[in-house]
Amino acid sequence: MSDTQIRRIPDRLDNPLRSAIFSWQSLLLLVATAIFVANSLATPYFLNPWSISDATFNFTEKALIALAMALVIISGEIDLSVAAIIAFCSTMMGFALQFGVGTFGLVVIGITTGLLCGAFNGALVSGLRLPSIVVTIGTMSFFRGLSFIVLGDQAFKGYPSSFAYFGQGYVWWVVSFEVVLFLIMAVIFYFVLHRTSFGRQIFVIGNNPVTAEFSGVRVRRIKFLLFCLTGVMSGLAAVLLTSRLGSTRPSIATGWELEVITMVVLGGVSILGGAGSIIGVVLAALIMGLVTFGLGLLNVPGIVMSIVIGTLLIAVIALPILAGRLRARMER
Amino acid sequence: MVSAIALMAVPVSAADTRIALVVKSLGNGFFDAAAKGAEQAAAELGGIEIIYTGPTSATAEGQIEIINALIAQQVDAIAISANDPDALVPALKKAMDRGIAVISWDSGVAAEGRQMHLNPSDTALIGETIFKLAADYLPDGGQVAILSASSTAANQNSWIDAGKEALPTMFPNIELVATVYGDDDSVKSTDEAKGLIASYPDLKAIIAPTTVGVVAAAQVVTDMGLIGKINVTGLALPSEFKQFIDSGASQAVALWNPIDLGYSAVYIANALATGTATAEPGSTISIGHVGEITLDDATSAAMAAPFTFDASNIEEFSKIY
Fold this sequence. Notes:
The structure holds 2 protein chains of 2 kinds. By secondary structure, chain A is mainly α.
C-alpha cells in the first residue's frame, strides 16, 4: 500500500526536550533571569560587579545550610535547629577566643561544635526514633538557650584580623571566599545526591522508609549522618557569619531556619520527602538573594520584601501543580 | 513583575544629597516620628532625599543587608540606630571606605564603625531636667522625693547624682527629702509611693525618672485623691502617661523627642557628607532649630535636654510613642 501512515507511539511519557523545558529547574532559571533583568532595568545601581558581589553575602551562608537541609528533607525529615546551632557554634568560638585560640583553632571549634550538635539531633531522631520536627524544635530552644546562658546581653568580640577573611575576604577581584566555598560545596552535594548510591538511598528513604529498610538500606544510620551533615554545614555557616559580623551575640542568625527551609522548598524539594535536586536549591538561593537585594536597592521596606518572597514561594509552588491539572484536563 | 518593580523605582535627581535613615525595625512609632523629623530637616536644608528604611525584625543581619544595598546605591550618608553595636562595624566600615558618611544616633555603634554618635541627651541635662520639672510648678519651693528604678540601675543613679549637684545652685528652695526604689516593678513602685506620701505629709512632688515608676506614682496620687496637692513628674512615655496629664495628677513630664532626633541626625549627616563639618573631638556642628552639638573625646555628642510634655502637646505626642 502506498499510504505508509506512521503512527507515532511515544517510547516515554515526555520527550527529553519537552520535559527539560517544563522542568522545575527551567522554571526557576526563568524566574531568576526575569528578576535579574527586572533589577537591571529598575535601578541603575544593580549592574555593577561590586553590587552583585555584595548581594551574594545576603544568601551564601543560608544557602550552604540549604544544601544539607535539602538532603534531610528529601529523606523525609526536617531540621529546625540550624539557626540555633549557628548561635551555639559562634558562642563556643567566642568562648575559645577568650583563651587566646587562634584563627585555625576557631574554625575547628566552630565546625566541630556544629558536628556535635548535629550528632545530638541525629542520635535523638535515629537512636530514640523520635520525630525530627519535635526533636529539633526542642534543640532549637536548647542550643540558643545555652548561648544566652553563656553570653546574656554581652557580646564576644576582638576576633583576630586573619579570621575576618572567611566572611569578608575576596579570592579574586569581586569573587568572595563565601561564594567560592558555596560553589564548591554545591558541586560536592550535587555529586553526592545525584551521582552516588548514598544519594539514591536518600531518595528511597524519603519515598518509603519501610521499603528502604527491607531493601537493606541502613535507614537510621543514613539519617544520623544527614543530621551530622546539617550540623557541620551550620558550623561552617557560623564561621562565615561570625567572621562577617566580627562579633558574637546570642541572637545571631535569628529566624534563619525558616529562610533556609524556604530556599529548599522553593528549589523544588518536596516537603514530604523523596524528591528534589541540588540545582533547584542553588537556583532558589540565587532567586531569594536577587529578590531581596533588588528590592533593597529600591529601598522597599522589609515588610513588603517578606510579602514578595511569600508570594513568590506560593506562586512557584502552585504554578506547576496548576499547569499539571490543566494539562490533565486538556488531555482528557 | 518587571513592570511592578520598575514602577516602584523612584526617580533620583543626581544633584540630591541622599541620606539614609536606618532604624532598628520598621513599624515602630518612635522611628516613624524620627523619620518625620528627618523630612523636616530635609525640607529646611533643601536638595536632600531621605531614604527611610529598616529591617522587618530588629536584627543586626537585617540591618547589614540594608547597609549593603545602600552602599550599592552609593548614598551620601547613612544615619543608623543600631541593633548591635559590634556586628554592624564591618559593614559600616565598608561603607566609610567607599566614601559614605556614617553616623549613629539613638542606639550607638562602636567608635570604629561610625564617624560620630548622637545621644538623645546626656546625664547632666537629664538630672537638671527632672528637678526643673518639679521646680517649675513650685514657685515657693517645697519638699520633693524621688521614686527611682532599682538601687543598682546605673542610668537612674547617674541622673539623680547629676540632679543633686545642680540642686543647690539652680533650685535652692527645693528640698529633696528621700530617694526610694521601686525596682521598675508596678507593685513595688506603688507601695513605695504610698510610703513616701505617708512619711512626708508636706510632700509637694514625686519625681520618678523611670517610665514604670512615674505611672505607678501618678496612679497612687489619683487613687488617694491627692490631685492638685502632689505633682507627679519624671521621665514618661507620652502614650502611657497622657491620662495623668489630662487628669491633672501631673503637670508635665519629659523624655527624648524622636522628631528632633531624626531632624538632628539629618543635619549632622548632611554636614559630614557635604564636608561642611568634620567629626573630630571638640568640633561643633549646627543642628538647625535644636541648636548645636559639640563632639566629646569619644566623638559622641548629646542633642539636648529631654523634651517636656505638658497639656499643650501630650495629645500630639501620645499618638507617636
